[in-house]
């Protein structure tokens, strides 16, 4: 079937169903839980690395007292430390094109946004952007597209291959994730063949009536069910590395949290694999966006959302983007985040522009909140005792989907994640860091090595760091 110039087989995945039970969610949101004994039981369940039920998640969302919230934040910090350690994985978004047939009311790329400058990177421009990103030290990208007849699965696959082919100096993009419209099964197979990492689709809002309000019915995105089924189709097509998300501020943030948890539970039940990542961007000002947002979520609510999600899905990576301002990123990162973007430029062709050049809303999807560069962010993370990680090892060793879930068990982090974080950080320090960052970085590496048990494994890590200092690259566990 062809709609707005886009050819799609609109068949819903086998067994695809509406797994969002609105009535149940609304009922659960009437729960209140100020019983310390009860919520501490729930914290313990999560600390024993068991995902929470919807009921338990709703109880955490209902905590109102400042002491209760403080305990919630502390539990989230503990889960993060125990499951993920102190690594923060770094990536950058790369906007490929902003033509779009849809009219999402909140987005600067919507068809009706007359003041937006439309552009799709040419092959040469794409290569130049990737060179600029590699020369800055990036190793992981997410390619972002509007929805348009130009951005076919073949086009997305071709962009992915082009990105992987660019090798500037010691640089390479080793993992290329995708944020694009939901595809049909054939389309997903095409992009999978190009070696994509995570396929990310945000449902925006899980609340049907609100979804209809912001996504006109005569657009492709206006079909709630097609989007909700998007990642089920991806899985059926063989992509087992999936990213879910909700745009926070369209409807009640607590409803969206339960929507995200319902989605994670559904994927796990249906395919045996939960989502690899969850995103929860808050709406930012955008070109031609004239919206009143009755559900705008404040910082306090946002913190509770992040901490609750951390506990509800202890094995799912959580992404905090540069939409959020610096101060909030500094705080929230401690209780649950595993990935952030850094040095982000949203305008199409923005990485090639001189450092510090002005960002214009007419060229961006929305306004960035945290404008720090990559090196500044890396240094800041290290001063907070986080290990910035550029690791892409699991995906390249075939440890994704079910296998990744199996591996996400105690011992895995010590054996793979921390050593790989230290190796990729060493590469960054050697090739791209400012002198002060390099000094801070090697001091951090020394401290981290001090935590590792003496013996053969530690010696191998030290040996590999020395090889990196002597010019070898891409060593991994
Ligand atoms: N066009 C595709 C789609 O809509 O799924 C893929 C990419 S879209 C460019 C990426 C995401 O940006 C959307 O899913 C939406 O959640 C988010 N977004 C759009 N407008 C935003 C705004 N004003 N503030 C924050 N995030 C926004
Ligand atoms: Fe287009 Fe995506 Fe923006 Fe909607 S959110 S207008 S689909 S780019």
Folded structure, characterized:
The strands form 2 sheets. The protein has an 8-stranded parallel beta barrel, surrounded by 5 helices. A two-stranded antiparallel ribbon has the order 1-2. Strand 3, helix 5 and strand 4 form a beta-alpha-beta unit. Helix 11 runs parallel beside helix 12 and helix 17 runs antiparallel to helix 18 (435-451). The mean pLDDT is 92. It starts with a strand and ends in an 8-residue tail after the last helix. The protein is built from 19 helices and 11 strands. The chain is globular and about 60 Å long. The relative contact order is 0.14. The chain folds into 2 domains: 2-21 and 80-399, TIM Barrel, CATH 3.20.20.70; 407-469, no CATH class. By secondary structure, it is α/β, with parallel strands linked by helices. Bound molecules: S-adenosylmethionine and iron/sulfur cluster. Iron/sulfur cluster is lined by residues 100, 102, 104, 107, 109-110, 146-147, 221.
Number of strands: 11
Secondary-structure element order, N to C: EEHHHHEHEHEHEHHHEHEHEHEHEHHHHH
Strands of the widest sheet, in order across it, are 3-4-5-6-7-8-9-10
Hetero groups: S-adenosylmethionine, iron/sulfur cluster
Distance between the termini: 46 Å
**Any idea what the CATH superfamily of the largest domain is called?**
Aldolase class I
The tally of helices reads 19
Structural class: alpha/beta
Compute the number of structural domains: 2
Mean pLDDT: 92
* Shape assignment: globular
**What summary fits the major beta sheet?**
8 strands, parallel, barrel
Q: What is the percent of helical residues?
A: 40-55%
Q: Which CATH class of the largest domain?
A: Alpha Beta
- Which band does the percent of strand residues land in? 5-15%
Which segments are poorly predicted (pLDDT under 50) over 5 or more consecutive residues?
none
